[in-house]
Amino acid sequence: MKAIQARVTGRVQGVSFRWYTQERARSLGVTGWVRNEPDGSVLLHAEGEDDAVDALVAWCASGPSTAKVGDVAVRAATPTGAASFDVIG
């Protein structure tokens, strides 16, 4: 079991990044949340099997075709026991 927090920067707001992230996380069996931040980045908390969380982070590096990702900064996080993957805000 792995839990991470990732901040995605670039052109990631206004391009359905959160929705696509939610869809990808659900397909991978990852739980947590994703939200837009005031600085224009997208922040997400993801937890689940190591390979699934790693796959979600790898996907975030490119995101949906409408996004232009500049960077994905990942750090370890404490698992929250989330039961689903939600879009916040």
Describe the protein.
It is globular and about 30 Å long. The longest helix is centred in the first third of the chain and has 12 residues. Helix 1 packs antiparallel against helix 2. It has one domain: Alpha-Beta Plaits, CATH 3.30.70.100. The protein has a five-stranded mixed sheet with strand order 4-1-3-2-5, covered by helices on one side. Strand 2 and strand 3 form a beta hairpin. The protein has two helices and five strands; from the N terminus they run E-H-E-E-H-E-E. The mean pLDDT is 97. It catalyses: an acyl phosphate + H2O = a carboxylate + phosphate + H(+). Keywords: Hydrolase. This is Acylphosphatase. Its EC number is 3.6.1.7.
Q: Percent range for helical residues?
A: 25-40%
What is the β-strand count?
5
Distance between the termini: 27 Å
Largest sheet: 5 strands, mixed
Organism: Nocardioides renjunii
Catalytic activity: an acyl phosphate + H2O = a carboxylate + phosphate + H(+)
Active site: 18, 36
EC number: 3.6.1.7
Helix-strand blueprint:
Elements: E1 2-11, H1 17-28, E2 31-36, E3 42-48, H2 50-60, E4 68-76, E5 85-88
Parallel strand pairs: 2-5
Antiparallel strand pairs: 1-3, 1-4, 2-3
List keywords for this structure.
89 residues; Alpha-Beta Plaits; 2 helices; hydrolase; Acylphosphatase_CS; Acylphosphatase-like_dom_sf
Give a summary of the structure in a few sentences:
It is an enzyme of class 3 (hydrolase). The protein has helices spanning 17-28, 50-60; strands at 2-11, 31-36, 42-48, 68-76, 85-88.
